[in-house]
Amino acid sequence: MAEIHELSAVGLRDALRSGELSARQATEHFLDRIAAENRQLGAFITITAEQAQLDAAAADKSRARAARDGTGLALLHGVPVAFKDLTDVAGVVTTHGSAALDHKPALADSAIVATLKSAGVVSLGKTQVPEFGLTAYSENRIAPPSRNPHALSRSSGGSSGGSAAAVAAGLVPFAPGSDGGGSVRIPAAACGLVGLKPGRGLAPAGESTGDPAGLVVSGPMARSAADAALLLDALVPAALVPGPAGTGSPGVPAASYLELARQDPPRLRIGVSLDSPWQTIFPFTPAREALDALAEGIRRLEAAGHEISEASIRYDNRYPAAFTTAWTAAVGDARIVPQREALLTPLTRTFRRRAQQRGPAQLAESLGFLRLFRRDTIAQYAAFDLILMPALAQTPRPVGWFTGASHGDGYWPAAEWTGDADGDYRKQCEYAPWSSMVNVCGLPAITIPVHWTGGPGGAGLPMGVQLIGPMGSEALLLQLATQLGC
After folding, report:
1. Which end of the chain is more exposed for a tag (fewer CB within 10 A), N or C?
2. What average pLDDT does this structure show over 448-466?
3. Is 183 among the catalytic positions?
4. Which SS3 state, helix, strand or coil, does residue 152 take?
């Protein structure tokens, strides 16, 4: 057998269900890898080794009972995972990446944790996030920054950056993330993973803070489309999984996303667009590496028989202000005592103050605009089966690049965060200009690694493409990822 961490998540699941591996063996192996790698990687904030060992032992006992009684096992029996530190796990501190909060153990599991625990997973701990999940990088003032396994000087993205780093480095086989503005797709693209944002309402949100615009949904990050599909099967109730034809028609037996991901997609009309709703206030030019990834994605799609043509998308220039208002509303309501507000990062403190200065009428106006934006944008996308664009406009950024912070081995005290909030935010919007509007629209989207900056063989940094589909197209997006070689 290959090293346990070299197995696909599907292969590991199969080995655990067959008894070829015990849950304790798998858990100990991944805990050993975390102990060896996390110091330099910064993927985990909290490692729950003792509880994981107890849960693995219980999983092994349940397998013995199932074998004796002839009963079935949970879908992800004994498979190790990790949860980002915006997500409540009972008995474990949720830091929200903030030094301004009291760090107390959560009283109960969040919906996504309860769902995956019922599917049989063993949690190894909590992964690094930006403060309150606000940014496209996973750096904060309470723990070392999450670094990219492909180049430790680079960021693993955000806000699910610690989880993406853990998957890419083989510290867990796959991981759930939450995505409210790109927080699954950005780190997945930065770390060379498949990252799927499901459509609104399909899976639990995965976070324990407010979300007035309904932007956040949980989704899988994995090394392959099949592994992502397996995790999605655990996240989504079976009744919501489309049938073999993707219709979800009554009377059609439900198929698993894993089964559907292995089927060939139909021939599709795919529109290519570099248009972004941010470009009116933050003009940007995609880096050559982003365009190289797009060209490679187009080449592979055309080779598979799909029809590719240009899509000119018109976005309302009121979008940036409205999205920012909705995106930052929850941080304005966060319970932080006044004497601890100085411990917030500059970006959080600035956007919290602005959110508190807005009245309910301004938030309601922004939410109303975003509903109109959603209808208009979806109508334009509907001219094609899917919309294609680069996943990121730039290569993964250096650690500290957004904030102006130094990036030594430790975390960064307040005095070392020299960047201004507006400059930080602008850099993020230029880095990931094609992410947030998908959340506003509530549509499914997937990022697929198709290119390496150092050429074949993975010598450089990963770059990918994003495909956006209509509601209910998660299986189709996974099929495309499989077809493109992931």
Report:
1. N
2. 86
3. yes
4. strand
Is the whole model's pTM more than 0.85, yes or no? yes
Is 84 annotated in the active site? yes
How far, in Å, are 159, 190, 291, 390, 396 from residue 393 at the CA level?
17, 11, 8, 7, 9
Find the mean pLDDT for residues 455-459. 61
In this structure, the number of other CB atoms found within 10 A of the CB of residue 336 comes to: 18
Report the C-alpha gap between 412 and 486 in whole angstroms: 37
Q: Which two tokens stand for residue 337?
A: 């005592």
Is 159 labeled as catalytic in the residue annotation?
Answer: yes
Catalytic site residue from 22, 98, 159, 276: 159
Identify the CA nearest to 179 among candidates 432, 482, 364.
Answer: 432
Say how far apart CA 366 and CA 383 lie, in whole Å. 27
Structure token digits, residue 130: 């930006």
Mean pLDDT of 314-340: 95
Select the more confidently predicted residue: 413 or 193: 193
**Cα–Cα–Cα angle for 332, 431, 422, rounded to 5 degrees:** 40
pLDDT in tens, 149-168: 999 999 999 999 999 999 99
Q: How many Å apart are CA 146 and CA 186, to the nearest integer?
A: 14
Query: What tokens were used for 62?
Result: 């349940």
| Nearest alpha carbon to residue 168 among 33, 286, 261 | 33
SS3 category, 398:
strand
Which string of DSSP letters, residue by residue, matches 71-116? ----TTTT-EEEEETTS--BTSB--TT-TTS---BBSS--HHHHHH
Which residue type is seen at 71? Answer: T
* Cβ contact 115:234 at 8 Å: yes
Rounded to whole angstroms, the Cα distance separating 475 from 269 reads 17
Task: Note the CATH number of domain 4-483.
Answer: 3.90.1300.10
Q: Which of 22, 84, 117, 427 is catalytic?
A: 84
- In this structure, the strands spanning 194-197 and 445-452 are antiparallel
Q: Pick from 325, 276, 293: which is nearest to 430 by CA? A: 276
Residue 249 has pLDDT above 70, yes or no: no
Instruction: Identify the residue whose tokens are 């992410």.
Output: 435
Q: What confidence tens digit (pLDDT) does each residue in 49-91 have? A: 999 999 999 999 999 999 999 889 999 999 999 999 999 999 9
Specify the pLDDT at position 254: 61
pLDDT tens sequence across 368-424: 999 999 999 999 999 999 999 999 999 999 999 998 876 554 455 544 666 689 999
Rg (CA), the chain: 21
Q: Which residue has the tokens 């009428």?
A: 361
**Catalytic residue selected from 156, 183, 366, 473:** 183
